[in-house]
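Table S2 (text version). Query chain:
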Amino acid sequence: LLTPAFHFDILKQYVSVYNQAAEEMIEKLSKYSGGESFELFQQASLCTMEVILQCAFSGGEMSEQTKNEYVDAVKRMGTLQVERNFNPIYMMFESIYFLSPGGREFLRLCDFVHETADSIIKKR
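Corresponding structure-token output:
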């Protein structure tokens, strides 16, 4: 089912996009060449987002700040979901979870992520 969409001939046209995004990420990571540890998730997520924007949305415009906020929101939503999974009351009663501080934050972040995606789609 996915084979036609990801066939090598179709993906060939995006190699330059992948290469450009990888070069930008390597340039950003080069400042960490001193041997100290650093968080790679943010940079890898931004690189992935850039490739998706260029390939799927023909370069949908998004400021660096919005990209960072989007990645942070998705990461925080994952953390909130894990926290929810460890609370049996929240798992059994969804309405109680969404009344909790974590649930309200989850809904707020979810709205932000959806609004950002919708705005990119509308611009295209």
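Notes on Table S2: Helices lie at 8-11, 15-29, 41-56, 64-85, 88-92, 94-99, 101-123. The two ends are 26 Å apart (CA to CA).
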